[in-house]
Amino acid sequence: MQKNKENSFIEGSVFTSLVKFALPVLGALILQAAYGAVDLLVVGQFGDPASISAVGTGSAFMQMITFIVTSLAMGSTVIIGQHIGEKKPKESGNAIGTTIVLFVAIGIVLTIILENFAGNLMTILQVPEASYEKAIIYVRICSGGILVIIAYNVISGILRGVGNANLPFLFVGIACVVNILGDLLFVGGFHMDAAGAALATVLAQLVSVIASLFVLRRQKLPVSFSLQQCRIYKVELKKILNIGIPIAIQETMVQISFLVINTTINHMGLMQSAGYGVAQKIISFIMLIPSSVMQTVSAFVAQNIGARKYERASRGFFTAIVTGCTLGIFIFLIGFFEGGLLSSLFTDNAQVIEQSALYLKGFSSDCILTCILFSSIGYFNGCGKSIPVMIQGISSAFLIRIPASIFFAGLPDTSLMMVGLAAPITTVYGIFFFLICFVWLRYSRRKEDRH
Description:
Number of strands: 0
Shape: globular
Number of domains: 2
Mean pLDDT: 86
Strand content: under 5%
Helix content: over 70%
Radius of gyration: 22 Å
Structural class: mainly alpha
Number of helices: 17
């Protein structure tokens, strides 16, 4: 057996533990973001506009499915982390076994649905006629390998639950390399177009899963697990779903709200629409920092809550806020003053760059605020209290973000900078929402201690 490389969150320096976990998580997220752009980049070099449209729509749809599954898997990450903090390796193994069976079932159901209704889904998404058949082929090939895609994300979620973020980083790195090589071979060499891009994606995930299983056989993990535990344990299933379902619902609603905002901005004009598209590409990378902070806080808090080290869990939360906001200030300055420079990396159209920079100027303060909000989300997820996270996500999306965006977009002589302000305004609401939730949580704990 190799030396145990899991990150114990219940002892040692809080800051060191968080950084050691957060850096590989951030690295994995960056690789995943780059991974999603590779298919489109290669198809753009060797295909036609119809192929680009097909892969863009198909990959966005499959990423949404993967995103929802990953959100649901957060329930497993939290429960496994809590069991480790409780020093209950057998229960951790039961949670892993339940997770495997649960997501295999989900994968089979999704495969059947997507294979049979890919055409209907592409019609709903209003895929252009020239791209329609190619988009269907892309989705069907990806859905044929969705069990592999789910397996990769579930394995990563389990490993983060036991405190290991290095291996998921390694596995996504392997997948990224294989995907690039596969795209060059199938799309560039064999001229398989969108189908080749889909095949490369599935192959990359398969190689990553095989590599992960090989490596895991040689790892000493702080859990007691055997294949006999691959069945549904009702107690563990209830815990996983109680946490995972609200998170998945919240993330789904947030994504829908961004689609509504995109539609609103499309009505402002072609240049505004294109500028917003470029800005969103930049923001997708900016948001990786608070996303890595959220995942780190979730794992840290889960283990310490399991060990009943509530004060240490709180220290981890505040340390994450300070660290994240420090980085957020630096990113805010770049986004506010150099948005045009960032935008020029994606396009050379002066008008599009101008519109993108305007949106980034309005949005940029969110780079600081989101680190506070995402740390709060991570804290409540780690505590197993995902209902407040769901309520906050849905209410902020439909009561603040969408109405504010529509209001700013409809003002006389408005600009994308005004629409961009909807993001930090929404985040401020979320921060105040969680302040109330923290007061409620502290009151509840004091009440439990008295009894």
